[in-house]
Write a structure and sequence with these properties.
The protein has 239 residues and is α+β, with helices and mostly antiparallel strands. The chain has helices spanning 66-81, 87-98, 123-135, 137-148, 155-174, 177-184, 190-193, 214-223, 228-238; strands at residues 15-24, 33-45, 48-60, 100-101, 106-107, 111-118. It has one domain (2-238): oxygen-dependent coproporphyrinogen oxidase. Helices cover 44% and strands 20% of the residues. Bound molecules: 2-acetamido-2-deoxy-beta-D-glucopyranose (2 copies).
């Protein structure tokens, strides 16, 4: 935490941490995976208590559906805008930067919001913001499940989903700070930490989707994150 700019003294400091996390890996490849986590930390250093909030919500589709991505981002933006107009653009970028798989040159998914070390303007305002973010999870995601859950899918689509879930595993085990923090904590509940992994995933040597396929299209967006809400404005201007 010192490396992230926290001014904490040496030695063992009493701390308090609370959080909620969930990941849903649906069986139908046309329904995206969602992950969210919201958390609060407190560290007692002498007479002073330092506290901060962090968290985020992000979406990992296997087949890109722009309307889904726009709905998802719009819902999160509305929650952010109730508190501070600068939050969504900052936290959207932070999300794209955080859920990055450098060795693949890909993002984990189409992003969402992510933030850490939030401690202003004050504790109450931050808590209200984080509660609104958490309350936006269901409205951001359930409509996508309802749209696609009964759509028939093929064996090829299922295979692609499993390959993409392999990427999800790569991110979580190699880069995710929450996973690393958990696994390095003495007495950690490994089973709970590894709950974020999908039940099934696969790897295939040098697998590359063919050009002009939906699989290829998804990878293009993962290589270069989109500004989903600007997309809406462009469409509005066109019509
Ligand atoms: C860090 O905290 C200590 C003790 O509260 C204080 O003396 C010091 O000036 C602080 N350093 C910075 C860089 O804020
Ligand atoms: C906390 O910040 C909010 C938003 O800026 C403000 O309305 C509220 O009065 C502040 N509360 C306290 C206790 O300072």
């Amino acid at each position: 935490m010192r490396s992230r700019g926290k001014n904490l003294s040496d030695g063992n400091l009493p701390f308090f941490a609370a959080g909620i996390s969930a990941v849903i890996h649906p069986s139908n490849p046309l329904v995206p995976t969602i992950h969210f986590n919201y958390r609060y930390f407190e560290v007692e250093d002498g007479k002073e208590t330092q506290w901060w909030f962090g968290g985020g919500t992000d979406l990992t589709p296997y087949y890109l559906n722009s309307a889904d991505a726009v709905h998802f981002h719009r819902t999160l933006k509305d929650a952010c805008d109730k508190h501070d107009n600068s939050y969504y653009p900052r936290f959207k970028k932070w999300c794209d930067d955080y859920f990055n798989i450098p060795h693949r040159g890909e993002r984990r998914g189409v992003g969402g919001i992510f933030f850490d070390d939030l401690d202003s303007p004050n504790q109450t305002a931050c808590f209200e913001f984080v509660k609104d973010c958490a309350n936006a999870v269901i409205p951001s995601y359930i409509p996508l499940v309802q749209r696609h859950k009964f759509t028939k899918y093929t064996e090829v689509e299922r295979e692609w989903q499993l390959l993409r879930r392999g990427r999800y595993v790569e991110f979580n085990l190699i880069y995710d700070r929450g996973t690393k923090f958990g696994l390095y904590t003495p007495g950690a509940r490994y089973e709970s930490i590894l709950m974020s992994l999908p039940l099934y995933a696969r790897w295939e040597y040098m697998h590359t989707p063919e050009e002009n396929t939906p699989e290829y299209e998804l990878v293009q967006v993962l290589r270069k994150p989109k500004d989903w809400l600007k997309l809406i404005n462009e469409k509005d201007n066109d019509s």
